[in-house]
Amino acid sequence: MPxxxxxxxxxxxxxxxxxxxxxxxxxxxxxDEMERVLCNLTRLDQREDEEFNxxxxxxxx
Length: 61
What we know:
This protein is mostly helical.
């Protein structure tokens, strides 16, 4: 599924570095397509921020 910014430029979520918070999240390995889309949008939205925040984070352990 392609993603686009406000200017119509296509964004590839695979090229955005995954924050360490995401690696430790239960939702990171989900098969739920909607969760994957929401996670990608969150990462894309904050890709230029100094600190990554995710309010949907659920620890794996």
